[in-house]
Automatic annotation (TrEMBL):
This is Pimeloyl-ACP methyl ester carboxylesterase. Residues 24-256 form the AB hydrolase-1 domain. It comes from the Bacteria. One of its GO terms (molecular function) is catalytic activity. It holds the Pfam family Abhydrolase_1. InterPro entries: AB_hydrolase_1, AB_hydrolase_fold, Carboxylesterase_BioH, Epox_hydrolase-like. It comes from Conyzicola lurida.
């Protein structure tokens, strides 16, 4: 895979396909996921004439795993380093889960002059629930602030159980290499725990409210992590934003129901 070097000298790898002269579509995977998790999107986007770039964040996939920089501000800067190194312009940024938050982090640091549109896939802009925001991570409140993500991503008990997802599970196994039936999740290291907790504390609503380019918020109707209503609530923050809910899909919406998701994605990008 080709790579760039971040401003703090970390090797960040990416894959590229499609038309080199086409509009860039940058795919940013979620927490611990690799660029290969976009296997159901890269070919449809490339076949539609786009320049498709799938990005491995630091510590993920084939990118370097340094001992520093595991916070959302750095993920935003890393994305900016990629856009600048490849001199991408008029780019559509597509982020799944924490990948979407990486986009908000980037736009909180820099302007949108290189960006023409944004797609957020099943990521609430605020994970903490309170009287002002009810669309956060299930069970994450001020009372559980220090403990909810102490050991990783907890099982919320919401959504279709993994082993009952049929072909949805098969696609997840192929795309993100999960191990169905594993007794315990893969333990996280201290850097991953630090990143997860930093992510959980963020509130991106002010960034979304100031967007100057169109944005699409997509939710999985059966998301394990937060109510699907987060997509509509997020879109309500900015008149340039719209939302969609994909039926029979969990958090990995673009994998579990890739045909419907791709229809929504391609329609949005074509309309920019």
């Amino acid at each position: 895979m080709p790579s760039i070097t971040s401003s703090d000298q970390v090797r960040l790898e990416y894959s590229e396909s499609g038309d080199p002269a086409g509009r860039p579509v940058v795919l940013i995977a979620g927490f611990m996921a690799a660029a290969t998790s976009w296997m159901f999107q890269t070919a449809p986007l490339a076949n539609a004439g786009y320049r498709v770039i799938a990005f491995d964040a630091r510590g993920q996939g084939k990118s370097e795993k340094p001992g520093h920089g595991y916070r959302m501000a750095r993920r935003g800067k890393d994305l900016g380093d990629l856009l600048e190194a490849l001199d991408l312009r008029d780019a559509v940024l597509v982020g799944q889960s924490m990948g979407a938050s990486s986009i908000w982090s980037y736009l909180g640091l820099f302007d949108a002059s290189r960006v023409s549109g944004i797609v957020s896939i099943d990521q609430t802009p605020r994970m903490l629930n309170d009287d002002d925001w009810k669309q956060g991570f299930y069970g994450y409140t001020r009372e559980t602030l220090g403990s909810r993500f102490e050991h990783g991503v907890p099982d919320t008990g919401v959504g279709t159980p993994m082993m009952k997802r049929g072909m949805r599970l098969v696609r997840l196994v192929r795309a993100v290499k999960i191990r169905p039936g594993s007794a315990k999740p893969v333990p996280l290291d201290r850097n991953e725990i630090a990143l997860l907790n930093d992510h959980a504390l963020q509130d991106w609503r002010d960034v979304i409210a100031r967007l100057t380019v169109p944005a699409l918020f997509v939710a999985g109707a059966e998301s394990e992590f937060w109510p699907a209503a987060h997509a509509e609530a997020s879109a309500a923050l900015n008149p340039l934003a719209t939302s969609a809910v994909v039926a029979n899909a969990g958090h990995a919406t673009n994998i579990e129901q890739h045909h419907e998701f791709n229809r929504v994605l391609l329609g949005f990008v074509a309309g920019l």
